[in-house]
Amino acid sequence: MGMHLYIHGGQVIDGTGAAPFAASVLVRDDKIMALGQEADQQVMHLDQVKRIDASGLTVMPGLIDSHCHLSFDDASSNLEIFHQRRNALSVLVASYNAKKVLRAGVTSILDPDSVFANSLDLRDAINAGYVEGPRMVCGAYALITGVGGTAGHLIADEGVTGYYRVVQGDDEIIKEVRRQIKEGVDWIKVHVSGVVPHYAHLGERCSWSQKELDLVCEVAHDMGVPVMGHCRGAEAVKRAAKADFDMLFHATGMDEEAIQMVIDKRIPVCPSLTFQANIADFGTQIGTSQALIDLFKNEIQESVEPMKRLIAAGIPLICGSESGFTAVPYGDWHHREMEVFVNHFGMTPLQAIRSATADNAFAMKMSGELGLIKPGCYADILCIEGDPSQQISLLGETRLIQHVIKNGQSLDLSPLPAHKRLSGWHIPSMGQRISKNAVMPAFN
Questions:
Q1: Rounded CA gap, 434 and 136, in Å?
Q2: Is the pLDDT score of 309 beyond 50?
Q3: Are 61 and 373 within 8 A, CB to CB?
Q4: Cβ atoms within 10 A of the Cβ of 111, count?
Q5: From which residue to which does the signal peptide run (predicted)?
Q6: Helices marked H in 231-372 — which ranges?
Q7: Cβ atoms 39, 377 nearer than 8 A
Q8: Distance between CA atoms of 113 and 70, rounded to whole angstroms?
Q9: Predicted confidence (pLDDT) per residue in 380-398, tens digit
Q10: How far apart are CA 63 and CA 382, in angstroms?
Q11: Domains defined for the chain, CATH in brackets
């Protein structure tokens, strides 16, 4: 007969962008079995049913976060990630972070790259039931060339540094892509753009040739594995689009040609502007320099018109928080990208919810199977007080979340046990520059 769960009395947001409607939801095992009157009729013939009274609640798909680095552990810098992490401890800490994410109503994530590529191990442990956590798909090490990446001379000229792997030439590209596929990646990630230290004033630049990017996609696609790219700047976007990348992160700084290529190729874009939005809005409170605050404000503003163009052309914008850094701690900001889409890109709250659910199932490689309240789809469901279709920020109020259901199982939302700070895990700050003129004005 299977296990049955009956959710009744609530208002359903189904993830398609349609307006909320009153309906019951009947779940059998890990799938949604019936909706509305059909659910009400079928439940009358079932003997053992777990029931959830959702009166006064919104019933909607569990959120999907397509840019969440569980192994970074709220790092304050790449230096911490590259040199302060240990493999076994890192994946244990990541498993704790996975529980934080679940309690925020996020039932699925894409972890694009991780230290020691250990997101693959966490994914498999979650799937096997050893660890509680969201549904996961993963990349491994992000591929860069010797000049690429976003951390300059912190990255070694060859091999692995943190979550990066340097590949030089065709043979290394082919070998590494195939090795990652053998290890079980769901996606290949490429840092198409990076900061070259001496030319940092030019911003991120495309650091791959067209031939190299074509080769990455040729090898990965031949094995049925999609490719995602970190792209800032028009040239990076254009080369990734021409190479047939399957998804783009950021896609900032696009010119007219780049925008049209993304539209023509129908490439989903994950802007991942939560980090920038948090620094822009709260940077003064945490001591961020005004120059950096202004930089991130400009990045958001310059993205408005290109992203509106993509939306108007029907290109999916999907939600990713880039959680894993101190500016975007786990469990706090997974809704924030939806706010950016509403406040800056002109989406309605229902359109933004679709971006974080049905459209985001693409990143999970489960389009049409996940992120929908629909018979036959996986029963990843969130029950929350209030109406997010009227106020999207409600999805960031974890105290309002009453039920999180993953694979048809209602999860224990009890607070996680507190933990101590790990010794040697984070790099202590010496603070800001001590100017003699500032601290000893009487001597000037």
A1: 45
A2: yes
A3: yes
A4: 31
A5: none
A6: 234-242, 256-265, 274-282, 290-312, 336-343, 349-356
A7: no
A8: 9
A9: 999 999 999 999 999 999 9
A10: 8
A11: 1-61+373-413 (2.30.40.10), 63-334 (3.20.20.140)
How many angstroms separate the CA atoms of 161 and 116, rounded?
A: 9
Positive/negative CA dihedral, 339, 368, 221, 315: negative
- Token pair 């994410």 is at which residue? 101
Under DSSP, is residue 334 helix (H, G, I), strand (E, B) or coil?
A: coil
Report residue 151 as tokens: 């951390």
Residue located via tokens 């500016």: 327
Q: Which two tokens stand for residue 381?
A: 């469901």
How far apart, in Å, are the Cα atoms of 87 and each of 10, 93, 118?
44, 10, 7
Side by side, the strands of the sheet bearing 25-28 are 31-35, 25-28, 4-8, 50-53
Q: Look up tokens 């010119």; give the residue.
A: 255
pLDDT in tens, 50-60: 999 999 999 99
Q: Which two tokens stand for residue 429?
A: 């700050």
**Long-range contacts made by residues 276-280, C-beta under 8 angstroms, separation at least 24?**
276/300, 277/336, 277/339, 277/340, 278/327, 278/328, 278/333, 278/336, 279/327
User: Are the C-beta atoms of 321 and 67 separated by less than 8 Å?
Assistant: yes
CA distance 301 to 345: 10
Burial of 91 (0-12, 13-18, 19+ CB in 10 A): buried
CB–CB of 16/372 below 8 Å?
A: yes
